[in-house]
Every structure is written in structure tokens, then in C-alpha cells.
Design brief:
By secondary structure, the chain is an alpha+beta fold. It has a single domain, classed as Alpha-ketoglutarate-dependent dioxygenase AlkB-like (Jelly Rolls, Sandwich), CATH 2.60.120. The chain contains two helices and 14 strands. The radius of gyration is 16 Å and the shape is globular. Bound molecules: succinic acid and fe (ii) ion.
């Protein structure tokens, strides 16, 4: 099914292909981006991320020289993040339920925008309060190569292609796995052009 990942997926990881519809989601993402524009956040070391980020929901993930955190206020606009559209919540809750996490109610959705060359280094998602809830990740546009490691940064990684519409749920034993995204290859998606968008839903607070 997935050339780069013929073995069964590690425990706690569920891949739902063609689960999300870019045609339906893109106008909602554009409306959020018009209120809280995607931006290249500064990391504590002083560099800036190659992925452009914004958020919707009660809480948004931000990074600056002082570290990483969730904040109710968008530091760029000084206003609360745009509300999470009902269609987002339903998509995330539905995917989580299919993966065995009934009752998932995300309060944060990080929206990542990748142009060709943009990447995300190996990291753990660990700024959320309760790791009992999974992360639900929705991929739109160009294919990405997602890297899945173990619970230590030095653990070997395996690669999984996340195509347009794929929803990946990682929870339980996979919740603390290191993960990242290889530099996006150039390409053209009929709706998104030379871009990949990724939505990650979290129960952060
Ligand atoms: C993330 O780990 O926050 C992003 C993952 C992705 O872009 O697929
Ligand atoms: Fe992550």
C-alpha cells in the first residue's frame, strides 16, 4: 500500500488515506489565514522555521526566542486565534474515533504551510497537557515524506508518504515518538499549487 512503509505501522499509529477533502477545507484555511497570517516563527536558538505557521482554536502553538508554548492570543495580531471551524472538529474527532480515541475534542489546530524545500526536523509534540489524547494530522496538497522514529531522538526512523487527503492519528504508545518531515519536493497540486498544508489537531489545554 505504501512503498516506503511496507511493514505494519507501529502501535498507536493509524493512517486513513483519502479521508480529508482539500476542496472543502481550503476555503476554511484561507479564511483563517486572512485573520491570522501564516508566519515563519523564530526558534529559541534564533533561527526561523522553514514552515510557515498559523493556528485556529482556543489555543495556538507559538515559538519565539523564549521557547515554545500554547497561547490564547496570536502574538502577531494581539487577538485571539480564529475559531476552529465545525468541519475541522468533526474531521479530527471522526478520525480519532476510527483510530480508537472516542471523545477527542481538539482545542488547538496548528496549520503548517510547506513550500518546496520546507522541512520539519525531528521533534516530539510535548507542549500539550495530557498525552492520553492523540495528535490528528491532516495532509493536503503535495506529498510529504513523514519520518517516524522512536521515543529517543537517536532512534532509527522509517519513512511514510502522506498524500493529499491522508489523516494520520498518533496516540498511545506512539504519542511520544520523534517525528519530522523531509524537505518538500517541487510539484504541482491542482488546487494548492506548489504547496503542502498540514493541520495538526491537539488537545493542548
Ligand atoms: C508536525 O509535526 O507538527 C507536522 C507534521 C506534518 O507536517 O506532517
Ligand atoms: Fe509534531
Amino acid at each position: 500500500m505504501n512503498d516506503l512503509f511496507p511493514e505494519p505501522l507501529p502501535d498507536g499509529i493509524t493512517l486513513l488515506p483519502r479521508q480529508a477533502d482539500a476542496v472543502a477545507l481550503l476555503p476554511l484555511i484561507d479564511a483563517i489565514a486572512a485573520m491570522s497570517p501564516p508566519r515563519h516563527l523564530t526558534v529559541p536558538g534564533g533561527g526561523s522555521m522553514s514552515v510557515a505557521m498559523t493556528n485556529c482554536g482556543m489555543l495556538g502553538w507559538v515559538s519565539d526566542r523564549s521557547g515554545y508554548r500554547y497561547d490564547r492570543i496570536d502574538p502577531l495580531t494581539g487577538r485571539p486565534w480564529p475559531a476552529m471551524p465545525a468541519a475541522f472538529t468533526e474531521l479530527a474527532a471522526g478520525a480519532a474515533a476510527q483510530a480508537g480515541f472516542a471523545g477527542f475534542m481538539p482545542d488547538a489546530c496548528l496549520i503548517n504551510s510547506y513550500a518546496p524545500g520546507a522541512r520539519m526536523g525531528l521533534h516530539q509534540d510535548r507542549d500539550e497537557r495530557d498525552f492520553a489524547w492523540p495528535i490528528v494530522s491532516v495532509s493536503l496538497g503535495l506529498d510529504a515524506v513523514f519520518l517516524i522514529g522512536g521515543t529517543r531522538r537517536a532512534d532509527p526512523t522509517r519513512a511514510l508518504v502522506l498524500a493529499d487527503g491522508a489523516v494520520l492519528v498518533f496516540g498511545g504508545p506512539a504519542r511520544r515518538m520523534y517525528h519530522g518531515v523531509r524537505p518538500l519536493k517541487a510539484g504541482h497540486h491542482p488546487l494548492l499549487g506548489a504547496r503542502r498544508l498540514n493541520l495538526t489537531f491537539r488537545k493542548a489545554g
